[in-house]
Amino acid sequence: MVTDALTPLPTADLVDEYGDRLRVCDTQFRQFGGRRAFCGRVRTISCHEDNGLVKELLRTPGEGCVLVVDGGGSVHTALTGDLIAASAVENGWAGLVVNGAVRDSAALAELPIGIKALGTNPRKSAKDGRGAVDVPVGFGGVTFFPGDVLHADDDGVVLLPAD
């Protein structure tokens, strides 16, 4: 999946411009990455307390994409930490939106990548690779489709449909 370089735009401005055509995620995420505003084409993973697929995908070229991880809202285990996020930076990912927990939050704040998640938990997840990649995932009242354009900042997460 090759992407064009995208510039993050304020989510409130996008809502003003697009109105109901813009999908707005209602989930109240916390910021963890060193970049508070980020955007990119969506890639997705659906998994539950198992970050094997997350680790594997973030080791591949991200080409400016944002990985949306639907962990079912579980904060029982972390779906990413500093090592996996550093791999994402090295491979050109713009950010992660995790419907679940992260760990190593102090280290994540130092990385030049956007990371939003529900919260933190120091507990590691399973590494079995259970789940699915590039499937539609839904939370916060919206469905995230691979190829959508996601913008995120301190005000929230919004989606434009794929071209």
TrEMBL record:
SUPFAM superfamilies named among the record's database cross-references: RraA-like
BP terms from Gene Ontology: regulation of RNA metabolic process
Enzyme class: lyase
Gene3D superfamilies: Ribonuclease E inhibitor RraA/RraA-like
Binding positions for substrate per the UniProt entry: 81-84, 103
CDD domains membership: RraA_family
Keywords of the record: Lyase, Magnesium, Metal-binding
Cofactor(s) this protein requires: Mg(2+); a divalent metal cation
One function term, GO molecular function aspect: oxaloacetate decarboxylase activity
Binding positions for Mg(2+) per the UniProt entry: 104
Enzyme Commission number, as recorded: 4.1.1.112, 4.1.3.17
InterPro entries named in the record: RraA, RraA/RraA-like, RraA/RraA-like_sf
Function: Catalyzes the aldol cleavage of 4-hydroxy-4-methyl-2-oxoglutarate (HMG) into 2 molecules of pyruvate. Also contains a secondary oxaloacetate (OAA) decarboxylase activity due to the common pyruvate enolate transition state formed following C-C bond cleavage in the retro-aldol and decarboxylation reactions.
Subunit composition and interactions: Homotrimer.
Name under which the protein is recorded: 4-hydroxy-4-methyl-2-oxoglutarate aldolase
Organism: Saccharomonospora glauca K62
